[in-house]
Structure formats: structure tokens, C-alpha cells
Write a structure and sequence with these properties.
alpha+beta
């Protein structure tokens, strides 16, 4: 799983994906596909692609407006679960992604 795959997934499914970096900071891939490290105060001394490769736990947060009666809580998932969600389904190939069909 690459960072680009995770970014596409977060945009398509409208999730924020959080994971811990080895230095204790947290990376958030927004529903706009932007990978952010909110606590970062200067130029990073790490590579996000490498940090993603070493991450084993993730937190999925729906980006939809919260439903006050039935709030959706962030869901912790493993690397294997996220990899299955991110990987394209067999047979999808290079077909365009159309939501209106």
C-alpha cells in the first residue's frame, strides 16, 4: 500500500485516515487526499512513504457531517484490513470510476 493509494481511498470514500509515525507524531490523510502532520513545527526529518510502510494500526474517521442521534465513531483497523479496502477490486482494471452509472 502506497501513500498515493491511501490518498485516493480517502477522497473516494470520504474518510480521514490517521496513523502514528515512529517519532510519536500522527499523520492525517484528509478526505481531500492531503497528508498532514499537524504537530510538525519545521521541515520533517522523515519520509511519509516510509512511515506509512511501518505503520500497523490506523484510525478511520468518516468525514460526513455528524448525525447527532446516531454518531459514527472513528474505527480502528489493522494494516491488512486497510490494504484490502484500499486495493482495487479484481476486474476493475483501468476502468473509469463513475458514481452516476
Amino acid at each position: 500500500m502506497k501513500l498515493a493509494d491511501l490518498r485516493r481511498f480517502s477522497i473516494r470514500k470520504q474518510f480521514k485516515v490517521r496513523f502514528r509515525l515512529q517519532n510519536g507524531l500522527e499523520c492525517v490523510v484528509t478526505d481531500c487526499g492531503i497528508a498532514e502532520v499537524p504537530a510538525l513545527k519545521g521541515p520533517p526529518d522523515f519520509n511519509l512513504e516510509e512511515e506509512l510502510a511501518s505503520a500497523s494500526e490506523f484510525l478511520l474517521e468518516p468525514s460526513a457531517a455528524p448525525d447527532k442521534k446516531n454518531p459514527v465513531k472513528p474505527r480502528p483497523i489493522t494494516r491488512a484490513e486497510l490494504a484490502r479496502m484500499v486495493s482495487p477490486s479484481p476486474g476493475a482494471g483501468a476502468a473509469p470510476d463513475h458514481d452516476d452509472e
